[in-house]
Specification:
This protein has helices at residues 8-29, 36-49, 60-70, 87-95, 114-122, 149-159, 211-220, 242-252, 255-273, 301-310, 340-348, 360-373; strands at 53-57, 78-82, 99-103, 134-137, 162-166, 174-175, 178-179, 186-190, 204-208, 287-288, 294-297, 349-352. It is α/β, with parallel strands linked by helices. The strands form three sheets. Strands 1-9-8-5-4-2-3 form a seven-stranded mixed beta sheet, sandwiched between helices. A three-stranded antiparallel beta sheet has the order 7-6-10, with no helix packed on it. Strand 6 and strand 7 (178-179) form a beta hairpin. The longest helix has 22 residues, at 8-29. Pyridoxal-5'-phosphate binds next to helix 3 and helix 4. Residues 59-61, 85-86, 88-89, 140, 166, 168-169, 190, 192, 202, 204 line the site of pyridoxal-5'-phosphate (PLP).
């Protein structure tokens, strides 16, 4: 009894034969970096996501960093970032010398609120970053739910902003029939092992509909050269290796089935947890949520979490401190109360176990534990 937050060993157990086989092939090939598996994976992901270019990199964080760099963001620029997300979204902005400008979230989806973006861009009150230096936004498809891209893209167009999607948690999610990560100027994915499409180590992907931007991304990940030993600009070492690419190709073939199972688990949670006064995750009309997390809101969150743990059910809090209140960003001068919805989400959110290998009996056990913990 008891339900762990995650069970990557169970996932491996189900695909072990195939994984072991491709790993042996890579080990015997002697080709470990940017080889045939990386090329094949990039083509498979490009076709799957419906984008012009798909460039694998060493992590989701690097995908964000290199995308911002490829778009020419740098010193003195401001980038709109939701106040409630993983730190990497904002850290990537800091890496290029730009400044994260935080925006509050929608209370029902936890994604960056386009109304708050509109307010910020049109408000004439003095702002920490001159409005004309706001040059990009990074909507985050948090927990696997696409941000409301239509109004965000409209605002970006009318204010001349680049749009970098943080799709680290949302591979396979759709928005009005198109895949998240293929809607803006660049899309960024993470293959961190716990993500919906996870490697057995670190990995990431940057996508774009612009071939020239794709070429620049491909150069930035290998020292900024068009040709070996000739360097046009300062580049990085951000390559994916063949072992990760081979693993990801096996898992990409399972992703559709895994996403369907995540959605079935979400439906079972919804049926079991309805009518208890909890706030269950909303699915944005016109979008498909891929449930990287099943995030509920509970007023007395920490006590509920303690009691479910006593019943053997692990839960998690993503994320307990919004970015504008992180010590890292103290110098930006934000204060408690600046982004009330981000702060309330940080207090109330509770993520339940969510992975395709969960059995119906385990889901029911989680439901029972939550009910008895309220
Ligand atoms: C995981 C994650 C990242 C970073 O990805 P890494 O592969 O761990 O570098 C960025 N943004 C969000 C929202 C994430 O969940």
């Amino acid at each position: 009894m008891g339900v762990p937050l995650l069970n990557l060993k169970a996932q491996y157990g189900r695909i072990q034969n195939r994984i072991d086989e491709v790993l042996r092939e890579v080990l015997q090939s002697g080709h470990f970096i940017l080889g045939p598996n990386v090329a094949a994976l990039e083509e498979e992901l490009r076709a799957f996501l419906g984008v012009a270019r798909a460039v694998t990199v060493a992590s989701g964080t690097d995908a964000l960093h290199l995308s911002l760099r490829a778009l020419g963001l740098g010193e003195g620029d401001g980038v709109l970032v939701p106040a409630f997300t993983f730190v990497a979204t904002a850290a990537a902005v800091s890496y290029v010398g730009a400044r994260p400008v935080f925006v509050d979230i929608e209370p029902d989806t936890f994604c960056m609120d386009s109304k708050r973006v509109a307010e910020y861009l049109t408000d004439t009150a003095p702002a920490p970053q001159p409005k004309e230096r706001i040059r990009a936004m990074i909507p985050v498809h948090l927990y696997g739910q696409p941000a409301d891209m239509e109004p965000l893209l409209g605002l970006a167009r009318s204010h001349g902003l680049a749009v970098v999607e943080d799709a680290a948690q949302a591979v396979g999610a759709t928005y009005h029939g198109r895949y998240a990560g293929g809607l803006g100027d660049a899309g960024c994915f993470s293959f961190y092992p716990t993500k919906n499409l996870g490697a057995m180590g670190d990995g990431g992907l940057a996508t774009t509909q612009d071939p020239a931007l794709g070429d620049r991304l491909a150069r930035l990940r290998v020292y900024g050269g068009r040709q070996r030993y000739l360097h046009d600009e300062l580049g990085f070492n951000s390559r994916l290796d063949e072992i990760q690419a081979a693993v990801l190709r096996v898992k990409l073939a399972c992703l559709g089935e895994w996403t369907a199972r995540r959605r079935a688990i979400a439906a079972r949670y919804r049926a079991g947890l309805g009518g208890l006064g909890l706030t269950l995750p909303l699915e944005r009309p016109g979008a498909t949520h891929v449930y990287h997390q099943f995030a509920i809101r509970v007023a007395d969150r920490d006590a509920v979490r303690r009691r479910t743990a006593e019943r053997g059910v692990q839960t998690a809090v993503y994320y307990p401190v919004p970015l504008h209140l992180q010590p890292l960003y103290r110098e930006l001068g934000y204060r408690p109360g600046d982004f009330p919805e981000a702060e309330r989400a940080a207090r109330e959110v509770l993520c339940l176990p969510m992975y395709p290998e969960l059995t119906d009996a385990q889901v029911d056990e989680v439901v029972e534990a939550v009910k008895r913990s309220l």
